[in-house]
Amino acid sequence: MRGAGAGVPKSLDRARALVEPVLRAAAATLSPGLRRIAEYHFGWRDESGQPFAASGGKMLRPTLAILAAEAVGGPAECAVAGAAALQIVHDFTLLHDDVMDEDATRRHRPTAWTVFGVGNAICAGDALVLLAHRLLLEDPGPHRVAALRCLLEATETVIAGQTLDLAYEGDTSISVDDYLRMAGQKTSALLGGSAAIGAILAGADAGRIAALRDFGVSLGNAFQGVDDWLGIWGASERTGKPVASDLRRRKASLPIVLAMRSGTDAGDDLAAWMRRTEPVDDRAVARAMEWLAAVGVEPQLRARVQRELDHAREALACVDPPAGVRAELLELARFVGEREF
After folding, report:
1. Which band of pLDDT confidence, cut at 50, 70 and 90, is reported for residue 9?
2. Sign of the C-alpha dihedral computed for residues 26, 29, 34 and 36 taken in this order
3. What pLDDT does 339 receive?
4. Does 6 score more than 60 pLDDT?
C-alpha cells in the first residue's frame, strides 16, 4: 500500500465540485430535524448546527459514476444526479452501520447517533435512502429509470449484505467464501452499481455497462481488502480508530477469517480467542497480532488486493475508454488499492 505522502487523484476533487452542490440542495429539502442530522453527518455543520468544514468522505462512488459516463463518451454532467444519489445511499449505509456497530467516531468526529440519538440517526438514514432515489427519479435525462432500477438493486444488495454481516457476528465457523460473499454485497455491489449507473446515464450499450460494472466490483473487492488491512494494521491517525480496532472488537474481518481457516496451530489459537468474551486489552491484541503474523495473513491479503486490481484493469480494457479517462480510472484504482500499503 502507498505511503502517507501519496497524492489524491484529481478526479475525486473534480467529482466533489460537481456533486456537492447537488447534495447540499437535496439535503435542504429534508425536514429541519432530519436536515440537521444529515448536514452534520456530511461534515457541513457541527453539533449545534453551525457551519463546519469537515471531510465528507472520499467521494469514490460519485467519482466512479462520472468517470464511467465519460468512459463511454458521455459528458460528466449527465451523471451528476446519479453520482449524488450514490453518495447519499452510501451515507445512508454509514449512518445505519454506525448504529449497528456502536461505532463512536466517523471521519474523525463523533458519529451522528452519539450526538443525536439512535432513533434520530436511523430516521435520518431512512430519509437519505428515499432522498437518493427521488433525486435520480427527478433527473431529466432519458435513462433515469434504468439507472434508478440499477440503484434499487444495488441498495437491496447492500442491505442483504448488512444482514449477513450481523448474522456472522461472533461466528468463528464462517468460511472465506462466506466472508467474501458478504463483503461483496456490502461494499462491492454499490461500487459496481456506481460504474454501471454512470454508463447507463450516458446511454452506453449493455456490453460496456457490464464491463464497467465488473471494473467497479473488482475495485470494491480491493477497497474492502484494504479496509480490512486498515482495521488491523492501519495507523490511528489515518483511520480515526484505535490500532487493531477489528481485533479489539473481535470482528471477524478477512485477515482473521483467513487465519482461522488456515489449519494452523496459530489460526486455531486465534479462533479460540475470538470465541472468548472477556474485555480485550493491549496484551491480548499483541498476542492476536502474533498469531496473524505466524499464519502469514498479511501477504495473502496483499495478494488478494492485487488480483482484484488486475481484474479491474482487464475489465476496463473491454470498455476501450478515451486515453485520458482510462488514465483517471486506473489512477483511481491505484488509489483504492494502495491507500496504505
Report:
1. very high
2. positive
3. 76
4. no
Contact 154, 191 (CB under 8 A): no
Q: Which residue has the cell 491484541?
A: 285
Q: Please indicate, yes or no, if residue 31 is contained in any of the structural domains.
A: yes
Cell of 123: 430516521
Residues whose CB is less than 8 angstroms from the CB of residue 200 and which lie 6 or more positions away in sequence, other chains included: 82, 143, 146, 147, 150, 209
- Segments of the chain assigned E as strands: 105-106, 109-110
* Domain containing residue 179: CATH number: 1.10.600.10
- What Cα–Cα distance (Å) separates residue 300 from each residue in 4, 39, 170, 267? 22, 40, 23, 14
Neighbours of 338 (CB within 10 A): 17
Q: How many residues does the chain have?
A: 341
Angle CA(87)–CA(89)–CA(93) in degrees, nearest 5? 115
Residue 55 above 80 pLDDT?
A: no
Query: What are 135's three cell numbers?
Result: 433525486
88 has a pLDDT exceeding 60: yes
Residue 250 lies in a domain: yes
The total number of structural domains in the chain stands at 1
Confidence of residue 240 (pLDDT cuts 50, 70, 90): low
Q: What is the mean pLDDT of residues 113-135?
A: 98
Residue 152 lies in a domain: yes
Does residue 4 lie in a domain region?
A: no
CA–CA distance, 44 with 26 (Å, rounded to integer): 13
Mean pLDDT of the chain: 94
How far is Cα 56 from Cα 41, in angstroms, rounded to an integer? 8
What range defines the domain where residue 36 resides?
Answer: 10-337
- Locate cell 456497530: which residue? 101
pLDDT (mean) for 116-135: 98
Residue 57: its pLDDT value, please? 81
Which pTM does this prediction carry?
0.94
The Cα-based distances of 304 to 8, 23, 158, 178, 226 in angstroms read 23, 34, 22, 16, 10
At residue 90, φ and ψ (nearest 5 deg) are -60, -45
Residues 271, 300: contact at Cβ < 8 Å? no
Residue 109 β-bridge partners:
106
C-beta of residue 297 within 8 angstroms of C-beta of residue 211: no
